[in-house]
Amino acid sequence: MGNHHDSIALDWVRGEIQDTLTQSQHALEAYVENRDDTARLRFCLNYLHQVHGTLQMVELDGAALLTEEMEALTQAVLDGQVANADEAIEVLMQGVLQLPQYLEHLDSSGDDFPLVLLPLLNDLRAARGANLLSDTSLFKPDLSPAQQPADAGASARLQDPKVAGHLRKLRQMYQFALAGVVREADLNTHFDYMQKVVERLARLCRKTPRGELWKAAGAFVETLQAHANPINTAVKSLLRELDAEIRLLMADNSDALAQPVPEALFKHLLYYVARARDLDTPQVRALRDAYRLDEALPSEDDVDHARTRVSGPGRDAIHSVVTALDEELARLKDQLDLFVRAETRQNSELEELLPSLRQVANTLGVIGLGTPRKVVSEQVELLERLSAQADTVDDGTLMDIAGALLYVEASLAGLDKDRHPEQGQDGDDNEPVNLSARELTEASEALVRESRNTLEQVKSSIVNFIASQWDTREIDHVPGLLYSIRGGLSLVPLPRVADMLAAAERYVTDVLLGSKQVPDWKQLDTLADAITSIEYYLERLAEGISNNDAILHVAEESLENLGFPVGQEPTWTDTQAEEQPQPETSETEAPVEAPSETDASKDTSGSDAELLDDEILEIFVEEAGEVLETINQYYPQLRQNHDDSTALTEVRRAFHTLKGSGRLVGASSIGELAWSVENLLNRVIDQTVKPTDDMFSLIDEVNERIPSLIQEFRHGEANGDVEALIARAEALATTRKTETAETLQTETAEATAGQETSAASVHETDDFPDAEPDTESETEYEPEPEPQATTEPAQEQETGDASADHDDLIDDEILEIFIEEAGEVLETIREYLPMLLRHHDDRSALTEVRRAFHTLKGSGRMVGANVIGELAWSVENMLNRVIDGSIFMNDDIARLLEEVTENVPGLVEDFEKRTAPRLDTSSLEARANALANGEIPDATLMPEPETESVPSQEATSASTGSLPEVEEELDPVLLEIFENETETHLQTIDEYLEQAGDRHSVAYTDSLSRALHTLKGSANTAGIKPIATVITPLEHFVKEARAQNKRYWD
Question: What are 291-313's pLDDT values in tens digits?
């Protein structure tokens, strides 16, 4: 909250201030009537000056600032320096009238925060042409902790040459991280680096004013990491100012630590930390407590609430309005009483009450009493209907109207007696409500009494509902009754009870009225327990009995058992809806189903119309329509704002639902097209692909095509040709967009794994600031395009030079950061890898493990730990292939992950000790590259020099029709094994060809590639060279086609 003040000092001077303000108001009014009488305006100026001096004396900063601006504007009017004198005088009068209300607010709350007055202050400044104030200019935290003198020997720290070297490296790392933040690329990684630098600077500057600055900077960076503050131009400017502070430490190594903190920068850092109210880390919490940030920057709700009180009518005005309303309500009750007692009644006579009631409703709205106003408005509507009907109005209805007017009268009595009902709303709604009769005002007692009477009506209605064999007409009005009760109880305030009634209201509406199901007795007993508990609580409250919280717990548990927990989303589901097939059940199978689109095609090729009855078809069409509505709602938001995570999630979920329901009913074209888009959006969500114009262009076309596909399926027509759209989606999902890239991939695919690794080691390691690639390049899953055999010697030399440069740059501080980060990465891997090994389809664990190796790659390359960095890159690249669906998680990948995880700590230790790596990682990298290309590692690592070197000449032989002769002597055991295995693999190939059928194109599957690869290896092992010679180029072709997303018959 704001600065908290004792109201005693204000009480001493408040009367004098009020009198002086009244005199200034009269003087200003006299000037308005006669603009030539400037003496009156000078009197007004003198009165305001007196008030300003008094407020400064009692240290009411917000009120004093308001009078200071009023003085300045009055002087500007006197000097003729305002553009519009009429506007200026109007704003000045507004300030004179609003200051007493602000002082009234101070008297009741004791909190003085100028933010409440910010709109009025800016109006005053704008009237005289001054610059406007921002909330940061009114942000005044307690800076005393940062104003303590530095320790005596602190300045000597910067004179150490080693420290100067560390500062240079730290600034270099900070600038590297800052560049990434400015580009908004890979923010998590760059914020991690930035945080590590700031932590070390805070340790270096400990027990000095500059140490407090870096503590604030650390908390500020934490708020950015947690997305509690936006990364906008102002934030980037502050981060650049922090870079300048590091430069200051490097340039002035004598007394920099003894200098005071730069107040403007420091306050801005604290301001952003204060804004992050939902962030509660130890660092942020410590800073918030030390500088009393919650008091310096009140919440928006607190400010809005205070502004409402300050800008609303004062006590005297409220008293006058309430008195007038009481008189009007008394007259209306008398009129109603006379109508009831009359021997002959004419319904048209009720119209005489309507004008006065409408006036009462409008007045209640002006003074902010929403619930009483709603009650009066309901009576107006009721009287309009009654006056128009032919039947005589019964006494019961008229008594209900009189009771409503009594309720309004009681509410006004409570408001006039003490205007503090809102104070109770500041507390936690979940805290036990322990009010007694003495604490209840007259209005509160009336509310509780009426609420108990209405609950009796609710119970009677439910009894009638049961007796009438579930006739819902008996309970149609129950939601309205419950709504009227909770509206009143919110004013008492009893917000917890009001929330319970809201849950009960929703149960009656959704279950008893909405679902049209016959409730069981257990449900009705539970509902009765909830209502009875609330009624009993109100009864005990009216009798002055405290400690009633246990009774409310019974009501809460009852409502939770009904599926409508208090203050939360309902957990109840319509059992009829649950009986329908739910497409969501296929969610975990989605990655596995993607390549098997031929299955759906085969199963539904000619019998869709026979298998589907009209009811299932209508369910699918209806659900597809709902899905399209969701897409039409959220997709334009995503197209406009690519960072709208909510819209992205909703659009992805919509395509997921469409995929599941389409596959479920055999609409294979719709299902597979939806899956291709869902897979693409999955890649966007896990940040391995960035949204592009090509992607949105594709989704535009898909959205246009789906309605016609639905209609075609509904009328039993052949599935539309969507293969081109699916192919485009798959190409975008694997970031292969151009024919040039495909050609380059084909040219480089035959390079050995060792060459790829060597070239990758050279890539992006030349210079420290540029060591980390951009996000776009990181997410490309292609092998690095640079490798060329002819330039390898030069590259090796360049690598050596780069390594030497890096060795020169690495000092203990930077090394410590890398070691610490590597430890954190390994902890993450050890946490999530077991989950992934247990469940290969755990996408969350897969994403975390991939992200960990990505971080290890970046930090390893940055500090020159190339062995670690390139090993991590090979694993990351392999996991990228798993994420994009090019390969599937399997036991070979799992074993490789375990081996790499076991060996990384030793490699880190070797790098820390500057010794040669204890392990040659080329075999691990080769296995990772092989697995990433869809190969079987056991076969990949087998010595096959003859087989791999033969294709060119043997292929030539094959093309001329002559194959090498089979070796005369074959091992009979190996031959028998080969024959048995061949039958299985040939069956797999036949199944693929059969599934392909007459389709225009179909994707090459993992099972086909595996069958060809194993068949080739078995043939080589058995010594049957002709078969190996035929299979080798075929396997190579399928592998390349899968890598480039080419399809069968393309």
Answer: 888 777 766 666 665 555 555 55
